[in-house]
Amino acid sequence: MSRDSLKEIVSYPYQLIHAFRKELFSREIFKQKRLVVPVISVGNISFGGTGKTPFTIYLAKTLIEKYQKNVCILTRAYKSKIPKRKIPLYIKGEEAKKYLKDKPKYFIGDEPILILENFVNEKNFSMAIGSKRYDAAQKALKNNPKIDLFILDDGMQHLDLYKDFEIALVNVNETGFYRESPEALEKVNQVIYSKVDEEWLSKPENKDNVSIRFKLDFDKFIDPDKKILAISGLADNDSFFHMLKKRLESLNYKLKSEEDFEIVSLPDHYSFSQSDIDHFIKKQNEFNLICTAKDYVKISEAYKEYFIVAELELELHNEFDLFKNIEDVIL
To answer: In sequence order, what are the residues at sequence separation of 6 or more whose Cβ sits closer than 8 angstroms to the Cβ of residue 272?
Structure first.
């Protein structure tokens, strides 16, 4: 059995359950709730690995800086340590430092922390966290009536909340492992193809598509005399390792053999134990310890100096087409 066939079998129950829920909503047995301000949803049909978080950050920054909008991101508290009595939790941009400074006490999830780090002290940004996104949005509006719009993070399979504009990200390298049928892409307002490369962009049939190309940059010096230990806890670790190798090559970093490039492939949203950190640091004299930005936020401040962050830089193609469509909703 091929890998793609196995993915299809494993994902089929998820697709079946979601299709059943969609049918209940279409028959109005369950009813969607609508907010008084627009909701832009960012999601995908696959089990992660499309670059939703960096795109959500980019989208929020653009709407704040270019359109002067007061933006609130709606996200769920996956693997957070927020007490249930505090959910939904509403955080204004100027309050972000509190949650970033004492993360063990206020751990709100790796992706929310990564988002907050990009909006510290931004008065026109806020975040509402909770699995019931409508309730989270209502709390946000009660605390901040100036909110102009919401971005619903990972919202494609969230059916309870009405979406005024729906964006679906599609990883061009992913096949088969879907939370819902690919036919669902026909009903969204905008499909964005992610993790494209020069070869994909050069094909005539792709030139008019909105797409995202990612490249990596590093926050610290990479020692050319050390080997590479690459650490990734993403939904698509293979893409990260591939991009990392390509970026090192572009910087003329020479990998003498496969042994010079060790990988640690972890489950998505993996939480590091102290023994994990100790294990990595023991290797720091021989290896450059390179991790993703999403993993870096889960490393204690006392050990951050030992790790190099490989940060994703986003390049959006045909962005005019995307925002021309969004403007119909927000202006």
So the answer is: 295, 298, 299
Between strands 39-43 and 71-75, the pairing is: unpaired
The radius of gyration computed from the CA coordinates of the chain, to the nearest angstrom, equals 20
* Residue 262 backbone phi and psi in degrees, to 5: -95, 145
3-state secondary structure of 253: coil
Identify the CA nearest to 316 among candidates 191, 192, 200: 192
Number of H helices, E strands in the chain: 10, 12
Structure tokens at 318: 């045909």
Domain ranges (residues) in the chain: 3-204+316-330, 216-314
pLDDT in tens, 271-327: 899 999 999 999 999 999 999 999 998 898 899 999 999 998 999 999 999 999 999
Closest CA to 277 of 240, 317, 304: 304
Buried/exposed 289-321: b ≥16 CB within 10 Å, e otherwise: bbbbbbbbbbbeeebeeebbbbebeeebbeeee
Token representation of residue 244? 């990392």
Please write the tens of the pLDDT for every residue from 31-57: 999 999 999 999 999 877 899 999 999
Cis check for the bond before 104: say yes or no (omega within 30 of 0). Answer: no
Q: Tokens 């650490």 identify what position?
A: 231
Asked if 155 contacts 198 with a C-beta cutoff of 8 angstroms, the reply is: no
CB atoms within 10 A of CB 160: 15
Q: What is the pTM of this model?
A: 0.90
Domain at 3-204+316-330: CATH architecture: 3-Layer(aba) Sandwich (3.40)
Distance CA 212, CA 195 (A): 6
